[in-house]
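Lab notes, practical 5.
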Amino acid sequence: MRLLITWLINAAALFALPYLMQSIRIQSFSTALVAALVLGLVNTLIRPILVLLTLPVTVLTLGLFIFVINGLLFWAVANFISGFQVAGFWSAVGGAILYSLISWALSSLLLK
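Output from the prediction step:
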C-alpha cells in the first residue's frame, strides 16, 4: 500500500511541475502516472550504474555531477514518454530538482 501511495505522490509532484516551469509539459494525470513509474524504474535500475561509472567525475566536482545525471535521466524519460515534454537539458536539470523537492515535501507530509 505504501508503494502505491508513493507512486501517486510522485505522479502528483510530476503533474505539478508545468505550473512551476513553463518549459515542462505534461498532457494528463495518466501521463504523469506512467512517467512517474518509468522515472522510478530508471532511478532504481540505471541511475546506480551511471553513478558508479561516473564516480571519478562526481568526486572531482564534489557531487555536483549527480545533478547532471539526474537531469539526463529526467530528459531521457521525457523523450521516451509521449505527452511528457521537456524543452532542453537545463530545463531537465531544474525539473529534476523541483520534482525531487516536491516529492520529498509531499512524502514527508503524507507518509508517516
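Observations recorded by the TA: Helices lie at 2-20, 29-45, 47-53, 55-60, 65-80, 89-110. The two ends are 13 Å apart (CA to CA).
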